[in-house]
Amino acid sequence: MMLLLVGAYALSMYYFVEESKNFKIEKEIDYPVDKVFSQFNNLQNFTRWNNFFKSSQSIDIDYYTPYEGQGSAISYVDSKKDTNGEMFIRYENPNTTLRYQLFEDKNENPTLVDVKFKALSAEKTKITWYVHTPKLSVLRRVENFWTEDRFAENIDKSMVNLKNVLGNKVEKDNQMAAIKYDSLMVENEEEKLLLGINVSTSNKKDALYRNIVMNYNKVYNYVTMDLGKKDDEFGFPVMITDADNYKDKEVSYFLGIPLSKKFGVTDNNFNFRSVSPTQNYVIYYKGSYEGRVKAIQQLIQKAKKDEMRFGDIRQTFIERPMEDQNVNVKLSLSVFK
Q1: Beta bridge partners of 101
Q2: Residue 250's closest CA among 290, 200, 209?
Q3: pLDDT value of position 15
Q4: Among the residues of 140-291, which ranges form H helices?
Q5: What span, in angstroms and rounded, lies between the C-alpha atoms of 120 and 162?
Q6: 3-state DSSP call for residue 271?
Q7: Which of 209, 172, 191, 309 is nearest to 260 (CA)?
Q8: Are residues 267 and 303 in the same domain?
Q9: Taking the model in full, what pTM does it have?
């Protein structure tokens, strides 16, 4: 009886299920084609946002030179899922086409994926995946029933990750390009979600800045090492404090790093803080940390002159704060009528 069932199954697979499968998936993303392409042809970038790699805490990846473009490759082993594989970029036409070859587990036949990139506008790109799955034996052909759905689900999750990565990268690039030091500007700032630490410390001499450096390192190490985030997955660090507390002997502040979404935090030293959208008076400042006070006073004087009330001041560190070095900060005073 068992032989009959196996035989019937094999016949049905042979006649009704293809030995390999071809399908196409299309997506659009609101970023320029050159910035999108660089996330696909550099495999170190690719594994940061592709859900297959990003979603596993137990995957171990080795990268082989060249690290981007035709000829680059990775191998991976996931001990918990008991899977392994190799991935290669076999062809590259910059900003237009990539061909990947993926060998999974012990299958000697690869999955072939051609990815086409088309600029729909200066800020919008269409991405099309053409997938050709490997030939499967008659007894394994049932896998072809769910291959497309599994691939599509992975792309949906990957696109969310990719938007977050590009959003932070483009925001950083734009902020760096737009900097005009010591000029007072007005900006509308969008809502932010910060993961960070609440601190109270002395304001004597350079004690405050040393404390900021120490706590920045704590937050940065937690986000990158404990949470596994890469630098292009989050924004510039932000310190929030009372606008005029530079006069006080003790200073209380919140120092955090912008992240895209909230999740459970196991370390009680860290917490999330939502920052509401605000209108800000802004000055970019470069110099000693103590020298920022003059720029803050300018912002407060401007608010008083304009008969605006003001709230917290945010110090966004464009370059990471380091002991005994000048700072590069964006000072933002929230104002309202």
Answers
A1: 88, 112
A2: 200
A3: 40
A4: 144-178, 207-221
A5: 18
A6: strand
A7: 191
A8: yes
A9: 0.57
**48 and 187 housed in the same domain:** no
Q: Distance (Å, rounded) from C-alpha 129 to C-alpha 153?
A: 13
- 320: CB partners within 8 A, 6+ apart: 216, 220, 237
Q: What is the pLDDT of residues 139-197, one digit of tens each?
A: 443 344 346 778 888 999 999 889 888 887 777 777 677 677 888 888 888 888 999 99
Structure tokens at 262: 């909230």
AA letter at 51 = N
Query: Pick from 124, 136, 121: which is nearest to 17 by CA?
Result: 136
With the C-alpha atoms ordered 148, 152, 153, 154, is the resulting torsion angle positive or negative? positive
DSSP assignment of 289-301: STTHHHHHHHHHH
**pLDDT tens digits, one per residue of 188-247:** 888 889 999 999 998 887 889 999 999 999 999 998 888 888 777 788 899 999 988 878
- pLDDT one-digit tens code per residue, 70-89: 999 999 998 887 888 899 99
Instruction: Say whether both 168 and 69 belong to one domain.
Output: yes
The parent domain of residue 153 ranges over 15-177
Indicate the length of the chain as a whole number: 337
Q: Which DSSP letter does residue 174 get? A: H
CA distance 51 to 256: 26
Do 172 and 187 fall within a single domain?
no
Whole-number Å distance between alpha carbons of 47 and 330: 32
Sheet holding 59-64, edge to edge: 22-29, 124-132, 111-121, 97-104, 83-93, 73-78, 59-64
Are 65 and 140 within one domain?
yes
Tokens 């002997």 label which residue?
249
One-letter identity of residue 275: V
Burial-class residue 316 by CB neighbours within 10 Å (0-12, 13-18, 19+).
buried
Sequence-distant (≥ 6) Cβ neighbours of residue 11 within 8 angstroms: none
How many structural domains comprise the chain?
A: 2
Least Cα distance to 296 among 249, 235, 237, 245 occurs for: 245
Nearest to 115 by CA among 40, 48, 165: 40
